[in-house]
Amino acid sequence: MQFERISHPAPVPGKTRAEAIANPGFGTLFTDHMVTIDWSEDKEWHNAQLAPRGPLTLDPAASVLHYAQEIFEGLKAYRLEDGTMALFRPRENAARFNRSADRLAMPNLPEDAFVAALEALVDADKDWFPTVEGGSLYLRPFMIATEAFLGVRPAKEYKFILIASPAGNYFKSGAPAVSIWVSDYTRAAPGGTGAAKCGGNYAASLVPTREAFDRGHDQVLFLDAAEHRYIEELGGMNLFFVFDDGRILTPPLTGTILPGITRDSIIDLAREEGLDVVEEMYTLDQWREDAASGKLLETFACGTAAVVTPVGKVAGHDGEFTIGSGGPGQLTSKLREKLTGIQRGTAEDTRGWVMRLG
């Protein structure tokens, strides 16, 4: 796919950009450009552009505003030691994007077009790469239904959009491990959209997330919808449990949990270490019991934004408990170091996960 390149009339001045990316935070600072591609029933994908980032023009009756036909992805561009830019498993994001599209009755975007859009935007805005330690260029591809109509059916017009955000650390607390709140709310039910990366899932998590923040916690934990006993995932991350017998457990992908790319990578890396990784149901009561007995050594969360993050404390209406010493565990730290080393080019990539750009 060829992108029409529209020059930016007033990009952010270099000095202003340098000051901004020295401490970018997460998700509040954006680069100069964006990619857009249109889809319609008669033309399919067309009008691909790399253009100045700016507001969208939508009809008030656009389907996304009324029926929530919207999906998105999240991945990062990294700067390697030799100065080149790279992406981590971008085709996995492209494949998941299309699985989400299938669930939301939206058109598939060819994987090559998805990756080409990432390459074009990173190349245009690579000077926005943050100088903060551990920084990255966070990439947000998304698709919305743009057809103007009122009626419950799949739309006939869509727009794919890609924006970028210089990113520092996801969590702001600075604590060695995060604290999570067990929610009484449900994120997703069997047969629903839990395995799709769509805005509706995250909208459902906002009230419980606010409740967690108000109580002084970093994240919210969701249990299963049917029995409200089994651990599923956090507001935006998958969970892993490390036991004293060398076993690692993570909840299975049953359609209510997002199949994380970081999750899949961690499973592979842990098995390479000779660890027994199992995907099994795990209850909150068993988690509390195993933490108290010392059988459970570590718990960590993982996702694109937060990478690998130790969980130190769990709280809910029934009280709270601590995992291990309440700080990072040895295996959590080891897996994080191994994963980030591959992503940033300081460790050997034997699987072809890293895609160099340029």
UniProtKB/TrEMBL annotation:
N6-(pyridoxal phosphate)lysine: residues bearing it: K197
CDD domains the UniProt entry points to: BCAT_beta_family
Chemical reaction(s) catalysed: L-valine + 2-oxoglutarate = 3-methyl-2-oxobutanoate + L-glutamate; L-leucine + 2-oxoglutarate = 4-methyl-2-oxopentanoate + L-glutamate; L-isoleucine + 2-oxoglutarate = (S)-3-methyl-2-oxopentanoate + L-glutamate
EC number(s) reported in the record: 2.6.1.42
Annotated GO MF terms: L-isoleucine-2-oxoglutarate transaminase activity; L-leucine-2-oxoglutarate transaminase activity; L-valine-2-oxoglutarate transaminase activity
Keywords from the UniProt entry: Amino-acid biosynthesis, Aminotransferase, Branched-chain amino acid biosynthesis, Pyridoxal phosphate, Transferase
Presence of keyword Transferase: yes
Record-annotated membrane-spanning stretches: none
GO biological process terms held by the UniProt record: isoleucine biosynthetic process; L-leucine biosynthetic process; L-valine biosynthetic process
Protein name (Swiss-Prot/TrEMBL): Branched-chain-amino-acid aminotransferase
